[in-house]
Amino acid sequence: MKPLKPFLKPLFICFVLLLLGCSSDDNGNEIGDDIEDVDDIGDDNDDDDGGEIIIGTLTTLNPSNNERPISKTPSISWEEYDGAQVVTYSVLLGTSEDGLSEIASELEMTTFDIEETNALELNTEYYWQVIAVENGTVLAESEVQAFTTEAIFATLITEDAAYGSRKATAVEVFNDKIWVIGGRNEGDAGLTDIWSSEDGENWIMEGNFPFGAIYGHELIVFKGKLWIYGGSSEGILSNKIFSSEDGIAWVEETETTPFIQYQSPKFTVLGDQIFRIAGYSGSVEDLSPERNVYSSTDGLNWVLETENHGFESKYGFQIENLNDIMYCIEPNPDSDIESISTRTSTDGATWSAPVVSGIRERGNNSLRTVVFDNRIILMTTPEDGPNNDSTFYISTNGEDWELATTTDSYPIRAIFFSLINLNGELFAIGGTQRSNFSSTNNTVWKLN
Questions:
Q1: Torsion-angle region of residue 214: left (phi > 0), alpha (psi -120 to 50) or beta?
Q2: Rounded to an integer, what is the distance from CA 430 to the centroid of its chain?
Q3: Of 276, 369, 396, 414, which is most buried by a Cβ count within 10 Å?
């Protein structure tokens, strides 16, 4: 090849440089096909002159920051962002602020609905963010915000549980099963049968209570055993104590109690003690023995802690234990006043002054409670009715309550049910109403 003539060399060099410049990558910042977190967006977000593009701020609308409770299938929305061309949006979600993952992309609308097939976990704090994109370039992003999903979403799992329609039964969790023992049928005949379930839907008959029919009794776990206190047998108030190591074989304890074990007694366990808080006998005296509080370290021998628990009603309240504190949650006994009050105690004898909450209730014996995730769940009638339905509240201290569900109401009557926590799964078990009520029930609801 002959050498170029001197006057052609500059032209050749310019031509080569032009070809090299055309081969440079000028695509800028693009959104990858699979965005794992927000840091994957706009890593090379520089303009054509090498300067950094200013990312705008995108305004979110719903949910608001730190809002609770939020539906497990929420609708997420944000304000439209103006661009020179078509703007699309990506939604990112996660359970930690620095662990967001893309759940939707190339959205042209400013809303995104999470469907039931992708429903969020209940009782969970989520973080979320929205990104506005134009031609693969990030124009704007919202601040990372948080919301917490509802703790309760009730589902009817059976309308006709195998243990049959009954009232004044006793329900408890023991050895990773739910137990239903005794009660009365629709004809008011006493029942002796023993039932268990591992899931609230499928029930097994475990046998019969060997000491005859019993109803209106307390079934409680203490010292690794199931215990039965109080109630009635053939119309006679029981003064006996029964215990079982497996829920099936029962022993009649020889010791007797210093108190009459009325129907619908209130027992609770705190630390290494069991407390008898109250019972119902129908006495009209304000300071009747129904108000006596006893404690025991073995479930058999009892010490009188106080002659008067001091509550407004003698027995129509719920007792829960949370963080080594006993909580008394009581509806106002005045039918014209709809409110609940909370008292606390660490010894069963001395109780705090009541803290009143303006939560609607049906009256005496209308509330149901259960401890879940270091909080108290309360079931009562909805604020706007109907009176026969229920809604749920949640509290860390029994005083400050917030709604635990976004559903207005569920067709569950609190006075007919027990709330049960089976290894973190909550159930409303039908058939636990007082024995003098005529209606019976054997439906089961899964609450979470």
A1: beta
A2: 18
A3: 414
Query: Who's near 86: CB < 8 A, 6+ residues apart?
Result: 108, 134
What's residue 440's pLDDT? 80
pTM of the model: 0.84
Q: In sequence order, what are the beta bridge partners of 126? A: 147
Residue 210 token pair: 């060997």
Using one digit for the tens of pLDDT, what is the confidence trace for 407-433? 999 999 877 789 999 999 999 998 766
CA distance 277 to 133: 63
The dihedral of CA 373, 378, 383, 389: what is its sign?
positive
Cα–Cα distance list, 131 to 41, 43, 97, 271, 351 (Å): 9, 14, 15, 51, 53
Q: Judging by beta carbons within 10 Å of its beta carbon (0-12, 13-18, 19+), is residue 297 exposed, middle or buried?
A: middle
Distance in angstroms (rounded) separating the CA atoms of residues 214 and 134 = 72
Ranges of residues in the chain with a pLDDT under 50 are 1-49
Q: Are 431 and 444 in contact (CB under 8 A)?
A: no
Tell me, what's the pLDDT at 416? 79
What was the pLDDT predicted at 435? Answer: 52
pLDDT tens profile 277-296: 987 777 767 778 888 999 99
DSSP letters of 102-167? EEEEEE-SSEEEPPGGGPPPTT-EEEEEEEEEETTEEEEEPPPEEEEE-S---EEEESS-TT-SBB
Paired with 427 in beta bridges are: 420, 446
**CA-based end-to-end distance of the chain:** 84
Q: What is the pLDDT of residue 9?
A: 44
Question: What is the model's pLDDT at position 108?
Answer: 94
Q: How far apart are CA 185 and CA 428, in angstroms?
A: 19
Structure tokens at 448: 């979470």
In whole angstroms, what is the distance from residue 381 CA to residue 405 CA? 13
Q: What angle do CA 427, 429, 433 make, to 5 degrees?
A: 140
Q: Domains, the chain, ranges and CATH?
A: 30-149 (2.60.40.10), 155-446 (2.120.10.80)
Rounded Cα gap, residues 312 and 283, in angstroms:
15
Place of tokens 């078990």: 429
d(C-alpha 326, C-alpha 348), whole Å: 8
Look at phi and psi of residue 233 and say left if phi exceeds 0, alpha if psi is from -120 to 50, else beta: beta
Nearest to 184 by CA among 207, 220, 212, 210: 212
